[in-house]
What does this fold into?
Amino acid sequence: MHEVVVISGKGGTGKTSLTGAFAHLAENKIICDLDVDAPDLHILLSPDLARTEDFYSGREAVIDNSRCQMCGTCLDMCQYRAVSFDGGKYFIDPLRCEGCKVCVSFCPDEAIDFPERYCGKWFMSSTRFGTMIHARLFPGAENSGRLVTLLRNQAREKAKQEGKDLILCDGAPGIGCPVISSLSGTNLAVVVTEPTLSGLHDLQRVAELCSHFKIKVAVVINKFDLNSEQSREIEKYCREKGFELAGNIPYDPEFTTAMVDKKVVTEVQNTKVGQEVRKIWAQVLELL
Amino acid sequence: MLISIASGKGGTGKTTVSASLAAIWDGPVTAVDLDVEEPNLHLFLNPQVESEEKVYLSVPEVDESKCNLCRECSNLCQFKAINVMGSTILTFPEMCHGCGGCMAICPENAISWGRRELGTLSRGKTGPNNFLMGSLRVGEAMSPPLMRAVKERLAMDLTERPGDAIIDAPPGVSCPAVCAVMDTDFILLVTEPTPFGFHDFKLAVEAFAPFKKPMAAVINRSGLGDNSVEAFCRENNIPVLVHIPFDKDIAGAYSRGRVIADLNPGLKSLFVQLAESIKEMGAGGRDA
It folds into this structure.
């Protein structure tokens, strides 16, 4: 079983457009959208939802004002400034509450409830390219890392059931908790960058993260002709660090046109970018 | 006034807008990079960094000679950061959220504060303006604690030297983005008129509307994609303050780390107009 994750560090470099095309080209796979915070892959793949599940994770503290004796212990002990005193009552701001249970445990009047937190939904769907596992974290919700892990485990189980040998994942931007969770168990991280100062800066951080977890990196430079000098800088950096260069994609509005038509770029006949993306996918398969 | 520049989708131009606004802002302003996972604002503003300090999270350290393995701490901990295995107590500092519960509950006073490095806080000057940036340590999963440290520093600086702040927020709509946007007085959403941009823009509006702060949009790469964002903004009374044209020269200048308000008088006046609209709307928000 191979597991490939497409990430980028910087947002908006073309992760999802490329993952969508890979989903079209790859055989015998499960597709997984691990960008649970702002998922977009479903826009290209138009999934038919076959199964919907609620995602609960962690708990949140809620003061029952009828039991509260107003001692203020919760306010004193909260490290997250989630407790406020307003209009003669104590309140906990759910967006600041970390779910640590300290106020619940130390409240002398047992006036703080600690219900489970309903954080989002996850889905198993069918698409024209095969089974897709995806999710939707509610705005402002926490624990995206746990949801990423859940999706990944579901994808592994489904792959086993259906006899698939590849899990193809669209990842999140950044280098924090959802990205770290998405790297666990990955054979190859395809890092999509762009020839800008920000693109290189962010590539360096996310590639360093992959090295930290000993995960092989293959770099794709999207819109490489936007600034050829910067593209050469990125190639030089990759060679120095021993990261594979999986290929370059020229700037082409076809990506956006395909997106508006809810298609992936390789489904559009006879485009130059489509050919480049096919070569890149062949290269990715070589690296597995 | 604290102005957060947010987006939902990554790569829509948050940093481009933040850098240009800071460059043309009339009056004292601090440019703040709260996209701590992938901070890029410094690449455009080239600040003279005056101080750099490491930021730490307080995590438990156990004095094993005092610990009697009562498990009060591990029963309280919601993050599996402290646990008793056989006859040893183990801590997992990378899992710790720094709530302080274990230390407060330990009947033997066996726990004291150690620390985990979260990243770096940099302060400096960009022209006459202050500059503040958080940069997450590569491998660190949690960005909100470092973001909170940057916000606290900003609040202290603004008490000493009152002024406005332009805050470059991380992408997405989960805990890091919410942490950046909450406590600001004005939310500016930068989007692009593509299906992905539109989808994530709606998520951002849903996530940030509960803060009941003045909120407005900038449409970047105007001319690309379709008109869905524009129509949605009209229906939901979200003013579109300016359109930044889709232009290869702007993309090229961005790739070289240029502040685009400096490119030509037309772009400069576009950002001056944006700043004026923000100030007007912000003043209205305070009166309301």
Notes: Chain B touches chain A through 58 residues (CB under 8 Å). Residues 265-287 of chain B form the longest helix (23 residues). Chain B is about 35% helix and 30% strand.
